[in-house]
Specification:
single chain; alpha+beta; 6-stranded mixed β-sheet; 10 strands
Amino acid sequence: MNPHLTTALDLANRSVPVLPLRAGKVPFGNCPTCRDNACGGRPNMKNPGPCTCPRPCHAWAAATTDRATLTGPEWSSCWKQAAAVAWHPGGIGLTVVDLDHADAVTWGRRTLPATRTVPTARGEHWIYRGAMFSVNAVRDGVDIKSTMVYARWLGPGTGTMTALPDTVRALIVKKPSPVRPVRPVTVTVPSGGGECRHRTPVYLERGIAMAEQRITAATSGVHATVYRTFLAVLSAHGRCGCLTDAHAARLFAAAQTRGESPRHCTDAWSNARTALGM
């Protein structure tokens, strides 16, 4: 059996979502059915669940633990050409802090709590329990890989895995852009002992669906539309515990169908949170 497929099946048996990578640590291209993200990817406005296409056509979203998919005919040619195996950290509730060179590793050892580490070609992967948004280049040589990204599998590593610290979460917090000032927003927080109206499934679902539609319908000023939509969603639902990572992932996916990068999405989300004092 192909050694990369053997590794993938071993990881899948341990509930780690995996996918094949071709040379250059790049996922395989879109299949004909989903060319140019025609199906909306995962998730999308009409279907918040995963794309049902069996091919590994959406990078991190193609990661799976399903043995039938991994060994099926749709993936067989990919494994024959595979140069490595990737995994989706956020899919198993983990975060990888990718320290890409010696200075970054030195910073990590001085700044971050000890946890499980995996050596890489130039640095180390530090793996923590807990998921968060993924952002590249949070500082020189440091990337955060968790939700909606993949990381190359380089082995189980050594050391005891510890909880994701606030030190890492704080790395993605950005100050509002000086070229995009935001007026203070007043947020009304429900009071009293009653149930928060935002937790009503219909109310929340309608709000997220409308936000997705607003983003995907944008024909110009996409950056501004995404930011204003994130700001509106957070102001309506962000202070009472309604929003989940799944809701945020839907909004990020909608933005990416309009050409926004994961980094732009995370920046817009962080700026909106900062503007609201969250």
